[in-house]
Inverse folding.
């Protein structure tokens, strides 16, 4: 009968000093596992945005009126806090699920053979963004849902989605130098589209900050801007992104680009049309909460689709010259390598 491996004091000490290296020395995940871990982190990054929107749209932004505790005397929500307390506290708990997903992505990337430092770093960037956004979320509560902090909270989540998308893409590529699939002019057109997309998302946070859904009550201050004017600017930017995407598709067809960039551009165009339809319907129906929430989800999907267009413009084949992390001598092998 197989026995439990003997773990020495040296092993235990090494595990405490560098747990990631300890795991990597004993586990080699399949590439499929690494891809799934990166995808899980991306899905949770979107989920935290959507549930955060649900907190605001249900007026539960101050369901837990303080931070890091839910009340001065309780770490969790209480029965007296009712529905809003449950919604707000549930969103806080989901942050731990997001941390677990990002942690799994880091461990899987660190344990892949050969060791991919760049991929592991992308996981750590996500971790620090999550930590920063958790602190910012606490500040949002402590300052009574100030719209500027709420906007910053959303933009930092958008940055998290960007890094998670890049990591997910990198799990399906090698570490060789990127090789462009299109010319310089096409790349510049895509970068222009990405730039306007960032501006579109940023102005969207201003629409939210000036709009009626304050997150708790009418007492929460709003940005001193005319909501309808900002909404029209937001719509104009959306049409600019649609136009650039449509132009990109024709350019890619004209230069006989590979199928990858064409497919990703088509996907983005369809997402933009759906997102635009939702945006106009919610505008003319006085912003029903369900449609606003769906529009927030669409914003995440649009951002991912735009980034996938950018990432599809090059390929990174597997570099045969990449070698594993040098193994340390002795029983512990590579567990002493850096995490």
């Amino acid at each position: 009968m197989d026995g439990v491996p003997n773990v020495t004091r040296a092993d235990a000490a090494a595990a405490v000093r560098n747990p990631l290296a300890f795991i990597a020395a004993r586990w080699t995940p399949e590439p499929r596992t690494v891809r799934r871990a990166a995808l899980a982190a991306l899905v949770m990054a979107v989920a935290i945005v959507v549930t955060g929107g649900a907190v605001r749209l249900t007026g539960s932004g101050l369901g837990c009126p303080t931070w890091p505790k839910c009340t001065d005397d309780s770490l969790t929500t209480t029965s007296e806090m009712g529905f809003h307390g449950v919604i707000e506290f549930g969103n806080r708990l989901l942050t731990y699920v997001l941390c677990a997903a990002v942690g799994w992505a880091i461990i899987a990337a660190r344990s892949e053979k050969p060791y991919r430092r760049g991929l592991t770093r992308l996981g750590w960037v996500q971790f620090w963004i999550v930590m920063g956004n958790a602190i910012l979320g606490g500040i949002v509560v402590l300052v009574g849902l100030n719209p500027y902090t709420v906007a910053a909270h959303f933009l930092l989540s958008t940055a998290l989605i960007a890094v998670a998308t890049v990591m997910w893409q990198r799990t399906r590529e090698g570490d060789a130098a990127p090789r462009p699939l299109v010319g310089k002019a096409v790349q510049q057109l895509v970068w222009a589209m990405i730039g306007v997309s960032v501006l579109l998302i940023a102005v969207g946070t201003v629409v939210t900050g000036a709009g009626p859904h304050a997150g708790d009550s009418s007492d929460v201050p709003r940005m001193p801007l005319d909501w309808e004017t900002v909404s029209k600017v937001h719509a104009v930017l959306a049409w600019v992104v649609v136009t650039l995407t449509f132009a990109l598709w024709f350019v890619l067809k004209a230069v006989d680009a590979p199928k990858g960039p064409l497919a990703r551009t088509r996907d983005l165009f369809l997402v933009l049309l759906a997102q635009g339809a939702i945006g106009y319907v919610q505008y003319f129906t006085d912003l029903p909460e369900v449609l606003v929430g769906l529009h927030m989800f669409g914003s995440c999907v649009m951002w991912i689709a735009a980034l996938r267009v950018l990432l599809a413009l090059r390929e990174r084949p597997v570099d045969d010259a990449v070698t594993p992390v040098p193994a340390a001598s002795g029983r512990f092998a590579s567990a002493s390598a850096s995490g």
In short: The mean pLDDT is 85. The radius of gyration is 23 Å. The beta strands are 179-180, 314-315.
